[in-house]
Design brief:
- The protein is mostly helical and 526 residues long.
- The chain folds into two domains: 243 residues, no CATH class; 185 residues, no CATH class.
- 55% of the residues lie in helices and 2% in strands.
- It has 20 helices and six strands.
- The chain has a two-stranded antiparallel sheet with strand order 1-2.
- A hairpin with a 6-residue loop joins strand 1 and strand 2.
- Helix 8 runs antiparallel to helix 18, helix 11 packs across helix 12 and helix 15 crosses helix 19.
- It starts with a helix and ends with a strand.
């Protein structure tokens, strides 16, 4: 062929689209090396001191129960019954204590306090690497995928979840189900199916079967989407992925299913609890405005939160923060302008945000009589999904930004304008803080709204369980809430050192004295 013929010849037909970039072991090692220093700096107060994660459920439930389980494991026993909760509850059947999770091995090789702290901190590395791996499976380059890992690991939802080890561990595991599922749905193979099964078991064993179920459901929808163009082979891989996830999770799910009829979910209590923790629509502003409803630094009880989003049953939010960040939001918006996948992710995030609003937006009213969904109690915990989707969309936005320099200038201008507007709004809220607190105090007394020990306490306050009886035999102060998440919270993780063993609740209705659970004098917010 002469040069002239070569120029005149039509271009060769394009080959198949390149396969998504795999999260190879070398890529995961590089991502780990870059994630670790940032996480270590962020959690330096926990790493450099003997402080412990003991706020809310982590201190009231997870710390003492995991100490009990750790002692059993060190004696070579996987206990099946916990006699210290009410009249006793099953350990494996209840699932919430995550007795089958691999992180329990930390209690065998490390002192308990080190192991408990390591469990919490490793969840952030696990979550960041999971978001990175999923982004790589979706075809993002290394740097944008790493940004997605940072955005998810350091999001307000994940950091605030340090007060509940079960939901933190589950949130850190769900990206791995999606990453392993994406690899199997696109390429198949027994090795990838085994990897998906391992991710499924890891997620289910974290202690929140609902979180596992939503992850597998999202994976099934992704498989059906791919089956539109992949034909029977893609549909077969989708069915096989669902079966593999279920079989791998059976050691966790089967005891839960057998125990479920004996739990509170079989009573009318679910309807009352479903009205308690739902994401208030005003809290969507917190995606870009950190600490929006704080009145006293580190406290969300009363003041602006009670005025704007609280009620007689919701004295505290489920999580102290849902902050994602202005930069992540701007990058996610940029990705939506040029990527269909990003628009689908953001639409799914918006739908799950609506679900997280529960009765505020009418979602609970629609699904309360449906099987499975009607048994959900805490809809606000679904915020983990918009958080994850926004993190991945932010990575897609960076991918778009790196490929088009003209958009970089427009993004910088838009980010500057947005930051100015948000800072102005935050300053206005600060000016209105005192009037809002006064209005809330006049409207209702926050101390009577269900706080378990009266008004919110600082870290130096001593909490006792149960409360001391009055001379007449009645309880002094309001009775504790039946939910384990009703204790005071902060918008940042706190570390508190116990000075005595955690209290045990007994089946006896008669109040009795118990050791105090007191935060040490060095307790501080960070």
């Amino acid at each position: 062929m002469t040069p002239a013929e070569a120029v005149a010849a039509p271009p060769a037909p394009a080959g198949p689209a390149p396969a998504p970039a795999p999260a190879a072991p070398a890529g995961l090692l590089r991502a780990t090396a870059l994630l670790l220093p940032v996480l270590a700096l962020f959690f330096a107060p926990a790493l450099l001191t003997d402080q412990q994660f003991l706020f809310r459920d982590s201190g009231r439930m997870h710390y003492p129960i995991k100490r009990f389980l750790a002692e059993e494991l060190r004696h070579g026993r996987l206990t099946e019954w916990n006699p210290y909760m009410g009249l006793g509850v099953p350990v494996v059947g209840a699932a919430v204590d995550a007795p089958l999770h691999p992180f329990n091995l930390l209690f065998v090789v490390l002192p308990f306090d080190w192991a408990f702290k390591a469990w919490v901190l490793l969840c952030y590395l696990l979550g960041g690497l999971g978001a990175f791996a999923w982004a790589r499976r979706l075809g993002l380059r290394f740097a944008p995928a790493l940004l997605a890992g940072y955005a998810f690991a350091l999001s307000g939802f994940l950091v605030s979840s340090s007060d509940n080890v079960t939901y933190l561990t589950t949130a850190a595991s769900v990206p791995w189900v999606l990453a392993a599922g994406e690899a199997f749905l696109l390429r198949g193979g027994p090795g990838r199916l085994l990897g998906l099964g391992a991710a499924s078991f890891l997620c289910a064993a974290a202690g929140d079967p609902q979180g596992w179920g939503i992850a597998v459901g999202i994976l099934a929808l992704r498989g059906l989407w791919l089956a539109r163009s992949g034909g029977r082979a893609a549909l077969g891989r989708t069915l096989l992925a669902g079966a593999g996830c279920t079989v791998a999770a059976l050691p966790v799910l089967l005891p839960v299913v057998l125990w479920l009829p004996q739990t509170v979910r079989a009573s009318e209590t679910v309807a009352r609890q479903a009205a308690r923790w739902n994401l208030h629509p005003l809290r969507v502003l917190e995606l870009g405005l950190p600490s929006l409803f704080e009145t006293t630094r580190g406290m969300l009880h009363g003041g602006a939160f009670q005025w704007a989003a609280g009620n007689e049953t919701t004295v505290l939010p489920w999580v102290a923060s849902v902050y994602v960040g202005v930069s992540a939001l701007a990058l996610a918006a940029l990705s939506a302008s040029g990527s269909r996948r990003a628009r689908i992710l953001l639409a799914a995030g918006a739908a799950l945000t609506w679900a997280a609003m529960g009765h505020y937006a009418g979602f609970v009213q629609l699904v309360r009589h449906l099987p499975v969904l009607g048994a959900f109690r805490y809809w606000e915990k679904l915020v983990v999904w918009p958080t994850l989707f926004l993190a991945i969309a932010a990575g897609m936005g960076l991918e778009e930004l790196l490929s088009r320099t003209d958009r970089a200038r427009r993004l910088a201008l838009g980010a500057a304008i947005g930051a100015a507007v948000l800072l102005s709004a935050r300053a206005a809220l600060a000016l209105l803080e005192a009037p809002l607190a006064a209005a809330a105090a006049r409207a209702s007394d926050p101390t009577a709204a269900g706080a378990p020990w009266g008004t919110p306490a600082s870290c130096s306050r001593s909490w006792r369980w149960p409360p001391s009886p009055s001379p007449a035999g009645s309880w002094r102060g309001p009775r504790p809430s039946p939910s384990p998440r009703s204790s005071p919270s902060t918008s940042r993780p706190r570390t508190c050192a116990p000075t005595s063993s955690p209290p045990r609740r007994t089946a006896s209705p008669a109040p009795r004295s118990a050791p105090s659970w007191r935060a040490g004098p060095s307790c501080r917010a960070w």
